[in-house]
Amino acid sequence: MSRFAYVNGRFVRHGQAAVHIEDRGYQLADGVYEVWAVFDGKLADAEGHFARLWRSLDELRIAHPMSEASLTIVLREAIRRNHVREGLVYLQVSRGVARRDHAFPNPAVPPAVVITARSVDRAAIEAKAAKGSAVITMPENRWGRCDIKTIGLLPNALAKQAARERGAIEAWFVDDLGLVTEGASSNAWIVDADGRLRTRDTQANILRGVTRLTLLDVIAEAGLPVAEQPFTVEEAKAAREAFITGAGSLVTPITSIDGVKIGDGTVGPVASRLRALYIERARAGAI
What we know:
The protein is of the alpha+beta class. It has two domains: 117 residues, Aminotransferase class 4, branched-chain amino acid transferase, N-terminal domain (D-amino Acid Aminotransferase, Chain A, domain 1), CATH 3.30.470; 160 residues, D-amino Acid Aminotransferase, Chain A, domain 2 (Alpha-Beta Barrel), CATH 3.20.10. The strands form two sheets. Strands 7, 8, 9, 10, 11, 12, 13, 14 and 15 form a nine-stranded mixed sheet that branches. A hairpin with a 5-residue loop joins strand 8 and strand 9. The longest helix has 17 residues. The two termini are 25 Å apart. Belongs to the class-IV pyridoxal-phosphate-dependent aminotransferase family. Its EC number is 2.6.1.42. This is Probable branched-chain-amino-acid aminotransferase. Keywords: Amino-acid biosynthesis, Branched-chain amino acid biosynthesis, Pyridoxal phosphate.
């Protein structure tokens, strides 16, 4: 089945899609991105992702490429053309195409937009989640504005590769105080020794995870104790449970950190319950 990508105003076959050699995203990582989970052919957590997209663009002073209504139409068309029922849709917006110069183009150029969509095997993912996964930890070495969802992801890519080489699915960054900030592509959570859910507050240098935000609502509705409070690597290793959240990972249980088993080394009841509740909520609210 042929795949299609949206590139600067038109849909083209995925294998023929290309951006200009002087796209500032390609040359300077001068751009932002968003990823929506797709359930039943619809966008999950749509409002949260749009809000974060507009904020990221505004923080970098990149013009909005189109209205939210227009962008929703294009995203849905990407999903339709690629026959995605369960999957992910990726959006990237760069400052545009201009002669290479660190300063912004003057006069300004139109933003460049790329959208791709792909299917995932939800059954296989669920089976993997039921077994639990591993994470590793590594020193925080990213820039000071991780709250912006920028395409400048080299430290994240290196962290992900290090995790893969050690048989893990994610790497948790740890700051100078020994506190976990977040994962290379996810937010980090634990159920601490007292049974309380904990995740880093967004005043720290972390991304304002949309899945994280929705899950906080799910947790509140479930009446579970939660605190937006940092935790150390030692606290995480001594926790009852651990998990990560993100558009791709949803709510994924973690059963070991740096090779140390969490609890008895099996997926715990809280993470399992929250995964089910989140997916139910995401499906029901998808547009």
